[in-house]
Design a protein that fits this description.
212 residues, mainly alpha, 2 domains, three-stranded mixed β-sheet, 8 helices, 58% helix
Length: 212
């Protein structure tokens, strides 16, 4: 108990977690839903062999522990009061697990090829929110590689949409400030196609791309 959101590593104090920024951001987001305090699990007390450490350390799972309630055995009639906000937080974790996993440098780049447009766009936004001010050069380079792969997936899906005379994805992409790399890939592809097969996308669309 204690109303906490705990994340690894917890087997000792001050253990480096290479994905700490992702854990911290996700824990902070969930804390806004259930009102719990997010913290590294070792801050509560070090515990060797706990599930979060195993799942993350061995399986690369973004694993958290919710310490429920303010008492060890709360009355049964209090169960609904602490269940609802924690269900919301758990659903948020499920919703974000895919895009936040894409933000982890070194993850299989092939995963991006399975993203739909919405998830890819969210992943780009999440990566920029988490690593936008990253100062570690090695980490930043890895993040940029991941961002590049996802941006190419976004561009691919957008171009496919444009080929069917739909501009919905293109308009959404242009309105997302963090998706400028994907926008540039779409622009390059459209201008290339137009140069080799004039009239493929229509004059109005090509002009809007040129003016972006």
């Amino acid at each position: 108990y204690s109303e906490l959101i705990l994340y690894p590593f917890g087997y000792a104090h001050n253990v480096n977690n290479p994905d700490s920024k992702i854990f911290v951001k996700l824990a902070e987001e969930m804390s806004k839903m259930n009102g719990y305090r997010p913290q590294n699990s070792a801050q509560l007390y070090p515990a060797m062999g706990d599930l979060d450490d195993y799942l993350y350390g061995s399986e690369k799972v973004l694993s958290f522990t919710f310490e429920l309630c303010k008492s060890f055995i709360p009355p049964a009639n209090q169960i609904p009061s602490f269940t609802a906000p924690n269900v919301e937080a758990a659903l948020h974790l499920i919703d974000k697990s895919g895009t936040y996993a894409m933000a982890i440098p070194g993850n299989n780049p092939g995963l991006a090829n399975n993203l739909d447009f919405d998830d890819a766009l969210t992943a780009v936004s999440d990566i920029n929110a988490i690593f936008g001010n990253e100062r570690n050069i090695v980490m930043r380079n890895e993040v940029l590689k991941q961002l590049d792969v996802i941006s190419k997936r976004l561009a691919q899906l957008t171009v496919e949409d444009l080929k069917h005379q739909s501009t919905e994805k293109w308009e959404r992409l242009r309105s997302e400030q963090t998706a400028s790399l994907a926008v540039s890939y779409v622009r390059t592809r459209l201008l290339f196609d137009e140069g080799h097969n004039p009239g493929s996308y229509g004059v109005e669309l090509i002009n809007s791309v040129k003016n972006k």
